[in-house]
């Protein structure tokens, strides 16, 4: 018997779900070795704070390995119960061995509206209860921020949220929070993976008596109430909110956020917003959008159409699990959709103004952003005198960086990443789309009282701190070998015998290179070691300049998608020059550095 046949036999021995068993059995009958290899050869591994991928039978599906989950044939009604059980068993045993009093402190579990989310939440709860853990199982649909909030409020040992965030409808995921209520980082990810590897045989399946178990605790409504009580501490302008004539349209993109945002609008004193009715209720098939991500082109079309009909001033949007936020403003008959970096800058200025108004020392104020985010916050910190810290991409790093700063005596009221994720206050060290929605709405109302708009205020910030413009996108590549070849060429651009990065791009001289894969920082002799930790994937950042124009270009692989992402920002005195440089850099990046045509790279 071949090794792939042995892997198939092992799957069939363990799997009790008839749908996924039938799928593997059919592939075995057809002798479809290629598809069996894709599904079964690679073991599950924790990636970005857990697992995320397409729903299909096989060890390689619904996991955090780069690119592999895109190789699985997706069909949303197939349930990969065994993957969830094995992940839960490994997590359970690792938490028990690592955290004091873990079983009595318990685990928080929540789920969104995607296909299989509720079932997987209950499967996870069943595993932990079978192992003697207290389980705080949230009943009904919750938004992702409620899970880390509950972990912190209940002093739980860990948390799990079943969601695929803004991924397409055929995906789902398993997001893990540690006892500090932040998404897991190393060494816990590797520790959990190792624990999964020695706990593969399912000890339990779905417990039909789950709700009646003394270990299964329902504190959902209490946690929601506490969440909104905490959210209200961010309220700044309730009197203005009640009097404002601004009109808002909100879309949840078929996700879970409408109930949470509408309640937040009420307690903040706003008049009700106009919902996008076609997208207001949770729908796991996301019928009106291809990608339920507010960043994607066309995702806000229905919301803008509704806003035109309603003569609204602003469009507000959360992604399906309500941890991300996006906004748009009507200006002179057109619509301006704010980028994540622009929103991050606005929220930073808002936090800074509040801090100043409370007469707190700026030397104790700190803010955090990912290294691929705009450098405008860095410039703001230099001018204003507060501390700015950048970290690797992802809120598992942003949240932990914030906690480290708090331990050093700083207050960290805000942090963000350019992928429209924003963190507020001290109770949730993770992105929160509801909190971001309220922060933006209050900013808009305050500016209205001053005769301004959000976009006009952004221009004022540019005048104060300099003009910064981003151009972020990606190349699609499903072949890891080609991706490795592209990055190898970048590291040996002029020679095959040693380190040699590109010296110029679009007429700008490269002034520094930070390679967080190989551990090289050209600005830090003699060790040349970077200050940031190494990245698990490819990640290289270039800075270049010519005259008064400067750029920062970061190129990295995605941990959850088959993409080479790039984050490009230019700053300068003349907006026309900045726009022209951005266009030229993107063109040379594609044709010269990535060799997009030769490598058959896809473009959005």
UniProtKB/TrEMBL annotation:
The keyword Protein biosynthesis does not apply. This is Phosphoglucomutase. Belongs to the phosphohexose mutase family. Its cofactor is Mg(2+). Transmembrane segments: none annotated. It is found in: Cytoplasm. GO terms for cellular component: cytoplasm; nucleus. One of its GO terms (biological process) is purine ribonucleoside salvage. Pfam families: PGM_PMM_I (PF02878), PGM_PMM_II (PF02879), PGM_PMM_III (PF02880). Residues 84-197, 236-329, 340-465 form the Alpha-D-phosphohexomutase alpha/beta/alpha domain. Keywords: Carbohydrate metabolism, Cytoplasm, Glucose metabolism, Isomerase, Magnesium, Metal-binding, Phosphoprotein. One of its GO terms (molecular function) is magnesium ion binding. PROSITE patterns: PGM_PMM (PS00710).
